Structure formats: structure tokens, C-alpha cells
Amino acid sequence: MRGFFVGLEIISKLSSMKSPVRHMFDGIASRYDFLNHFLSCYQDVLWRRYCCKYLKKLMADGNAPGNAGCMTGKAPAADVAVENADGNVGCAKNVPRIVRLLDLCGGTGDFAHTFRKIFEGSRGACKCLTNAVPQNGTACEFVVDPAVIGDFSYGMLAEVKPKKIDAHAVQLDAMKMPFAERQFDVILNGFGMRNVPDARGALLESYRVLDAGGYLCVLEFFSPRNLFNKFFYKVLAPLFIPVMGAFFSGKRDAYEYLVNSILRFLPVDDFCKMAEECGFEVKKVKMFDGGISFGVFLHKPVSAS
Question: pTM for the whole thing?
Fold first, then answer.
């Protein structure tokens, strides 16, 4: 059933937990999107679009969960894969490929909204198992189920509803999610992993709720390693970001936290190593704007139980 619920279900008893970071995000929720776009010169919009387009490519190339590699969903297997005259396997015509999406640490839902725009209604050649386009010219269609947008901040989730995103907003703990195993085909995590107290725990929990063959895409500011990034995050960012954040939101401490959380977080290479230790395959690491941010594309092996 399509629709919204925002804050109607409080998961993991978060309302009784005292979290200064959660309280901080509640306080900047109304200006969060604007400041994200302003402080990044709208590059954050392009980063999300790239991540969603690359996920679409991975899925269209046959690296998706279920349904003979075409796309996930609950259509009968016999209706999904067909064998052509030359023995190639292709997607059956007019079978929707349903994507079960979780936008984890999803805030106001921008990532989920971008994902739907990139995926839903789009058509492209489905290469399936043989990386060959079916002879009859059929194509895969991606249909995104109402997304689950999960975040620990009630204030951030309250900003989902005015956007009229086709999604359910759930206040939850990223390290202890209220979902059964293998419930999602794609998990997005945009700028949230460094805010989780235990990144390894969040990766393991994401692995648990992700279906075999599914993807976790982490878009994040990682701890700087090269000279440009160190100069940006240790010299420029502490001067510019808190001042502009304070001017537009009145919450200087929140944007000081932003810079400090990046410096305290893992470098991207260490994060990828941790993800592999949790069972993921690293499919790609995309550096944006000289390393200001990175997109990390993680795959749960099809053989995973």
C-alpha cells in the first residue's frame, strides 16, 4: 500500500534514549537540505545522481539479486527469464523488476527520492546472465517499491512528508534495525555512516537485512589522506563550514561537529577493508571532486546465506 507515515512508529525505543547527536540533527532539520546544497555548491545532488545511475548500471548488467540476475522482485521465476533461439537468456517481456529500497540514515529522504527518479519508469537493455541483449529486443523496467527511509532523528524524518516522497519514514537504530533478514535489494547510506557509533556494527546489520546479490551504496565524507583533502578539511572547512552553518541555521556547533566527525572517521581504504571483513564485495570506489567525498559500492554475494 502506497503512502506515508512519519513518526507514527518509534522503533527501538529511541524516544527514551538521550543522544546529543540526534538532538543536534533535530535542531537543524528544517535547514538541512538547503545547507547541504549550499555548502557543497550543489555537488551533493550530482554525487547522489551518480551513485543511483551506477547502481542502475550494475543491476541492468545482471549483478542484481534474484530473478536470474535481471532484477529482483516477487514475480515467478518462470516469468522472468526466457531462453532465446540461440540459447541466450534474457528478461521476459513486460515483467516489472521490483526494487525493495532502504535509505538508511536517510534524513529528509533526498537519496531515496533521487533513486526513484533514476530508476522508476526507466528502460534499458537487460543483459542478464549472458551479457547479451535478448533477440526480441525486450528490456528491463525498474519499479521501486515505496522506500523505507530510516533515521534516528525524528526532526529529519518529519521533513520527508512535505516532499511527497512515496516512502515510509521510520525512526530506528542503524545498528539494530527492526527488519527481518534479507528484506531489501538496495540500501543507500548518504553521509550517515560516520554518525553511527559503531560503523562495523552498522555494516553487519546492513548485511543482515540486505538480500543476497543486493547492494549497499555508501556516499560519505571519509577521513582525508592526500594533501588536498587534508588542507581542505583541516584548514578551509573549519573556517568556512561552521561560520556559514551558523549564519543560515543558528547552529554553529552542528557544523563544527560535521567537520570533526569527518576527521575522526575512517579513511576510505580502511572502510572498504572493514566492509570486506563483514562479508561484502567492494565493486567500486568512486572519488568525487578530488576526494571531498566518495561513493563506495558494496555487493552482498549471491551465494550468501
Answer: 0.83
